[in-house]
Design brief:
- The chain is an alpha/beta fold.
- The protein has 3 domains: 92 residues, Orthogonal Bundle (Arc Repressor Mutant, subunit A); 198 residues, Type I PLP-dependent aspartate aminotransferase-like (Major domain) (Aspartate Aminotransferase, domain 2, 3-Layer(aba) Sandwich); 102 residues, Aspartate Aminotransferase, domain 1.
- It is built from 14 helices and 16 strands.
């Protein structure tokens, strides 16, 4: 079947029913492009979802799904009793029309330096996970038998091809599978030739930072933020610029006040680590404009974007980047299982060769057998099904933690829900030191992390980070009760603010 099209007062929309891309995604993509190109200016009132559906001859739910994604990413706003509008908060000078530069084959990096490599790790988890250790998927729900069959099939049929050295960039079918998945689900613009397989996201961070930074270069980092990023930047000799975060994500104005010429900006825009907010569209555009103007590099760490429980995963910052300033990194360790140690870099084409040289220096390649099995796991549809199952399971386990917290931790820890991710933040009462709370929890056999551990500058209020994805309901309830008993010893002793 061919295309259906209609001319609307605000945009021209053409949906292709024969495309493998879902209709709601086509509508989302076209409306987003119209907004970014200012064909739908800020403040424009859109047709209602029912009118859209009638004009396009599609189900109303298809339109609602597209609208919900655009609401979540701040492209659209609801006005009670008045309809749907293009967000008035979009600064017109940031909405620009540029044709993306074509992806070229591997090229030079214009003399980017390669600094000495000094690995620094953010921590080490030993033993089986116990509540509320973070960053651990539901290992009890992983399809081990299926993975074993794929592994045995590969070993039986392809051992001779797997044993020798292989391409340092990674197994090509896996790179194709990941590139296709990210393009469809995350709005990432890339080809397999831009993708480099690494031994996890920490390895990716080390490769990028030691390639692009010289000693003393200024690097913005979210505060509080990911310890692994801080370690990689420090190892590369960067001068860290802690930038506070607020309800809208990285506070760009505060960053500019501290350092107007960053060489690198590390950011977790889809789900800020560890607090969980989303970087708004206006700040995403402002960040891209800053990077383009200052010739800065942005590292986008998309560490757990698959797990979003309201709506669909948000589009990546990289998909908005027309000037090739964003380096996108991700990992499979949190999606599948930690020991798989497979991550990836999506490099701007001018950086690919330099990053490949650095990748070779840190180990010629990632294990080929795991790459081939993962490629099969993705291409045969098992990966997408596993993500859907885990998304439902994790939503249930988050609700269990919230119920247990409300029942057992009243007055001790305020656990707030989150629309995404694998952990929740529990806020301690005013005046309670989160390091003290961490110590008593540890003594009680409960694994939590104090918010202050992620911060460079002192935080106004103490909090604990609690992972929930790896634990069954009875484990969550049992650990919550132990945590409550432990916290009472520090909360009752806390001075009145």
């Amino acid at each position: 079947m061919g295309k259906i099209a209609t001319s609307l007062p605000t945009a021209t929309v053409a949906l292709d029913r024969s495309s493998s891309t879902a209709l709601y995604r086509q509508l989302y993509n076209q409306l987003r492009e119209a907004i970014l190109s200012a064909r739908l200016p800020a403040g424009t009132r859109l047709l209602s979802s029912r009118e859209f559906a009638d004009d396009l001859g599609i189900a109303r739910n298809t339109v609602l799904n597209a609208f919900e994604q655009l609401y979540a990413e701040s492209y659209l706003e609801r006005r009670v009793g008045d309809g749907t509008y293009v967000s008035a908060q979009l600064p017109e000078d940031l909405l620009r029309v540029k044709s993306p530069r074509p992806v070229r084959e591997r090229s030079n990096t214009n003399g980017q330096p390669v600094s000495n490599f000094m690995p620094i790790g953010p921590g080490n988890y030993i033993g089986p996970p116990r509540p509320f250790r973070t960053g651990t998927p539901a290992l009890d729900a992983f399809p081990c038998k299926l993975w074993g069959r794929l592994l045995a099939r590969r070993w039986s049929n392809s051992a001779a091809a797997i044993l020798p050295y292989s391409d340092s960039a990674g197994y090509l079918p896996l790179r194709k599978a990941i590139a296709s998945y990210l393009s469809t689900t995350r709005g990432v613009r890339c080809t397999p030739e831009q993708l480099i397989i690494t031994c996890g996201s920490q390895h990716a961070l080390e490769i990028v930072t030691r390639t692009l930074l010289q000693s003393g270069d200024a690097a913005w980092i979210e505060d509080p933020g990911f310890l692994g990023a801080r370690a990689a930047l420090t190892a590369a000799g960067a001068r860290l610029i802690p930038v506070p975060v607020d309800a809208d994500g990285l506070n760009i104005s505060a960053g500019l006040a501290h350092c107007a010429e960053p060489r690198m900006i590390y950011v977790t825009p889809s789900h800020q680590y560890p607090l969980g907010m989303t970087l708004t569209l206006s700040r995403r555009l402002a960040l891209l404009k800053l990077a383009s103007k200052r010739a800065a590099w942005i590292i986008e760490d998309d560490y757990d974007s698959e797990f979003r429980y309201v709506g669909r995963p948000l589009a990546a910052l990289q998909g908005l980047d027309m000037d090739q300033r964003v380096i996108y990194i991700g990992t499979l360790s949190k999606v599948l299982f930690p020991s798989i140690r497979i991550g990836y870099i999506i490099a701007p084409y001018d950086l690919f060769d330099a990053l490949m040289r650095a990748r070779c220096l840190s180990g010629h390649q990632s294990p080929t057998l795991e790459q081939t099995v993962l490629a099969d796991f993705i291409s045969e549809g098992h990966f997408a099904r596993h993500i859907r199952r885990m998304r439902a399971l994790y939503a249930e386990r988050q609700q269990t933690l919230l119920k247990a917290g409300k029942s057992e931790l009243n007055g001790l820890l305020e656990i707030r829900p989150s629309n995404a991710g694998m952990h929740l933040i529990g806020w301690l009462p005013e005046g309670v030191d989160d390091q003290s709370a961490f110590r008593v929890a540890t003594a009680a056999g409960v694994e939590v992390t104090p918010l202050s551990a992620y911060a460079i500058k002192p935080q106004k209020r103490g909090a604990l980070r609690l992972g929930y994805t790896a634990y069954k309901p009875r484990e969550i309830w049992r650990a919550t009760r132990r945590l409550a008993t432990a916290l009472r010893t520090v909360v009752t002793k806390a001075p009145t603010p």
